[in-house]
Write a structure and sequence with these properties.
The complex is a heterodimer of chains A (305) and B (148). Chain A has two domains: 146 residues, outer membrane lipoprotein receptor (LolB), chain A; 109 residues, MucB/RseB, C-terminal domain (Phosphorylase Kinase, domain 1, 2-Layer Sandwich). Chain A is built from four helices and 18 strands. Chain A is globular, with a radius of gyration of 21 Å. With 148 residues, chain B is mainly α. Among the domains of chain B are: 46 residues, no CATH class; 35 residues, no CATH class. Helix content of chain B is 66%, strand content 0%. Chain B has seven helices and no strands. In chain B, helix 1 crosses helix 3 and helix 2 crosses helix 3. Chain B starts with 5 loop residues before the first helix and ends with a helix. Classes of the chains: A alpha+beta (305), B mainly alpha (148). Chains A and B meet through helix 1, helix 2, strand 1, strand 2 and strand 3 of A and helix 5, helix 6 and helix 7 of B.
Chain lengths: 305, 148
């Protein structure tokens, strides 16, 4: 009798737990469900004009940042660490560029990517960040997880906690924000490293072959393909970028005859939030980097054709 | 009428008989001196018991009785909810256990040397992802490039 009741209890508890967990997916705040909020945030964070100041922590380092975002997608974000090291990341409408104390690089790219259709999240509550009412969402994808706070009136992301294997790898929190027209400076320096958007025939012409993964994690889609010199040896290298809005993966491909590809099997980045692995397939050396788990990374590399 | 039994007389005395039986015994008592004498003795006994002081109960009486009673589980709401809570904890533990299986089991070597450039390039491309933490990416890029 007692066993029977225990089994009945378990059968009753599982739907309850699933229901509690699933409630976040159907819950609505201001008439929007989680998917609608994510879509709103992905669009608004790049189409609103604002100046924001905040703090960030990544890889055990703290920094202050100022973000100037124009309503045409251009932005500059200046980060100054507690150790005095600074970087500026920007998008001028044509090129995404990064300038640090000891170098600069850029990549020609199109407008900010759209949120893939597979991106799903759940509403976990509401609150306030930088004096603004926010809705809080949790977005999961494989080993990566993001908790984001979205301004309920504008859709701008005001706080974000990124986790990898449930360990916090970076946090961002806006302290103050002013919605106003913002002028964003262009890229006024000569790049030492650059990559251009490339079509498949362009990559095949440069490398002799292009390998594409035949398997990708659910929801992940190609968001860009680029061709540029390898920053290590200067030889042609293709970069194929994939994303599902939370996790992202880049495949770097170059001829195995001129390779300087990363060796040593699967490795973790110093910040602990990404993995890297390499292999040679049909005379093409491929290095994969992304915030996916080991099994996913290997499966993607094994599916290359 | 035959003489009523002692039980019938006691029932008559406690007024627990039907009116017909009561009337029959009343008439019998009036005609039978033997039964009338028994009835008087019964009345005296009852009066004597009623006038006696109430018996005193030993203090350890219930303790002695309780130890001899068989132990039977009592089903209460509290116990039921304890089972529900235990089941919930078991279910939650099972779910967490399944989730923890996704964690890497081995300690991986850290990316170093020229390979870090791949990470930096990937970070730069990630900045255009719709839900990217651009402040965090800027900080990582500053850190990685200064370590090269």
């Amino acid at each position: 009798m007692a066993k029977r009741r225990l089994i009945i209890s378990l059968l009753a508890i599982f739907p309850l737990l699933l229901g509690f967990w699933g409630f976040g997916y159907i819950r609505r705040v201001d008439g929007r469900n989680a998917a609608a909020w994510l879509s709103f945030a992905a669009q608004a964070s790049r189409s609103m004009s604002y100046h924001a100041v905040g703090s960030t922590r990544s890889g055990g380092r703290q920094a202050q940042f100022t973000l100037d975002q124009a309503n045409d997608g251009r932005y500059t974000i200046q980060t100054v660490g507690a150790d005095g090291k600074a970087s500026t990341l920007g998008f001028d409408g044509k090129r995404l560029w990064c300038r640090t104390c000891d170098g600069q690089s850029s990549i020609a790219t199109s407008d900010p990517q759209q949120l893939p259709a597979g991106a799903r999240g759940r509403i976990i509550g509401t609150g306030e960040v930088a004096g603004r009412p926010v809705v809080r969402l949790m977005v999961n994808s494989g080993a990566a997880q993001k908790e984001i706070a979205i301004d309920r009136q504008t859709g701008v992301t005001l706080a974000m906690d990124t986790r990898f294997h449930r360990q916090s790898v970076s946090t961002m929190r806006v302290v103050s924000i002013a919605y106003q027209p913002v002028m964003v400076e262009g890229c006024a320096f000569k790049s030492t490293s650059s990559a251009q958007p490339a079509t498949d025939p362009m990559i095949v012409k440069a490398l002799g072959l292009l390998l594409r993964p035949q398997w990708l994690p659910r929801g992940m889609a190609a968001t860009g393909a680029y061709l540029g010199p390898c920053s290590c040896c200067g030889k042609p290298m293709a970069s194929l970028h994939y994303s599902d809005g939370v996790t992202s993966l880049t495949l770097f491909e170059m001829s195995a005859k001129m390779t300087c590809m990363a060796g040593g099997g699967c490795q973790v980045t110093p910040t602990g939030n990404m993995l890297m692995d390499s292999r040679i397939t049909r005379d093409i050396a491929v290095t994969a980097v992304g915030n996916v788990d080991v099994r996913t990374l290997k499966r993607v590399l094994e599916s290359l054709q | 009428m035959r003489c009523p039994s002692l039980e019938q007389l006691a029932a008559y005395q406690s007024k627990s008989l039907t009116p017909t039986e009561r009337e029959r015994i009343y008439q019998h008592l009036a005609a039978c001196p033997h039964c009338a004498q028994q009835m008087t003795a019964l009345d005296n006994s009852i009066q004597l018991l009623q006038s006696a002081p109430p018996p005193t109960v030993p203090e350890n009486l219930w303790a002695g009785v309780a130890t001899r009673l068989p132990v039977t589980p009592q089903r209460t709401i509290g116990q039921w909810w304890w089972k529900v809570a235990a089941s919930s904890a078991l279910a939650a533990g099972l779910v967490l256990g399944l989730l923890s299986m996704h964690q890497p089991s081995a300690v991986l070597p850290v990316v170093s040397g020229s390979s870090i450039s791949y990470v930096a390039d990937h970070e730069l491309m990630t900045a255009q992802d719709p839900l990217a933490d651009r402040a965090g990416i800027g900080l990582m890029l500053a850190s990685q490039r200064s370590n090269r």
